[in-house]
């Protein structure tokens, strides 16, 4: 694994009003909640941070940021990084399509069809940060 890529947690990032914010989808289907560490116009205080709910179409852009890699030749999503006694480990989730392969690689089932494991960092290859664009408009629904 390249030392130049620092795995990050997955999540949404939105560009709004000339700034980049951590974001979450909702509460409504066409809304996005923006978070900031500082008070900003239109943001309300919420347990040590500030948040604002805006319409998705009012954003400049919205992306899903996720760190992916390969463990045992199978695709994975990096969920967390931890260090103990100077050794780094990655908490990863299996993103392949075979539960049998996941179990053979040592993943444990955390829910139906969902597998996770913690492994030494050097056992995860091709680690990269992906930025997946999210549409700002929702498809029209027929009623």
**What kind of sheet is the major sheet?**
11 strands, antiparallel
Topology pattern, helix = H, strand = E: EEEEEEEEHEEE
Shape: elongated
Structural class: mainly beta
Q: Which percent range describes the beta-strand content?
A: over 45%
Number of strand segments: 11
Supply the number of structural domains. 2
As a percent range, the share of helical residues equals: under 10%
Number of helices: 1
Low-confidence stretches: none
Rounded to the nearest angstrom, the radius of gyration is 18 Å
Overall pLDDT confidence: 91
What does this structure look like?
With 143 residues, the chain is mainly beta. The chain is built from one helix and eleven strands. The chain has two domains: 11-62, no CATH class; 65-133. It has one helix at 99-104; strands spanning 11-16, 19-25, 31-36, 44-46, 49-55, 61-71, 74-84, 87-94, 108-111, 114-120, 124-133. Strands 1, 2, 3, 4, 5, 6, 7, 8, 9, 10 and 11 form an eleven-stranded antiparallel sheet that branches. The protein is elongated. The protein starts with 10 loop residues before the first strand and ends in a 10-residue tail after the last strand.
Give a short synopsis of this structure.
The protein has 143 residues and is mainly beta.
Protein traits:
143 residues; mainly beta; 4% helix
Give the helices and strands, then pairings.
Layout: E1 11-16, E2 19-25, E3 31-36, E4 44-46, E5 49-55, E6 61-71, E7 74-84, E8 87-94, H1 99-104, E9 108-111, E10 114-120, E11 124-133
Antiparallel strand pairs: 1-2, 1-6, 2-3, 3-5, 4-5, 6-7, 6-11, 7-8, 8-10, 9-10
């Amino acid at each position: 694994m390249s030392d130049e890529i620092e795995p990050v947690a997955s999540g949404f990032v939105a560009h709004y009003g000339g700034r980049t914010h951590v974001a979450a989808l909702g509460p409504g289907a066409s809304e996005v909640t923006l978070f900031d560490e500082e008070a900003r116009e239109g943001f309300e205080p919420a347990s040590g941070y500030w948040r604002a709910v805006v319409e998705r179409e009012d954003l400049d852009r919205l992306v899903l940021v996720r760190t992916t890699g390969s463990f045992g030749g199978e695709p994975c999503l990096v969920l967390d990084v931890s260090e103990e006694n100077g050794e780094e480990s990655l908490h990863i989730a299996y993103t392949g399509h075979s539960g049998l392969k996941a179990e053979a690689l040592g993943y444990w089932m955390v829910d139906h069809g969902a597998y996770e494991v913690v492994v030494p960092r050097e056992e995860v290859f091709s680690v990269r940060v992906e930025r997946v664009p999210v549409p700002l408009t929702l498809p029209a629904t027929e009623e």
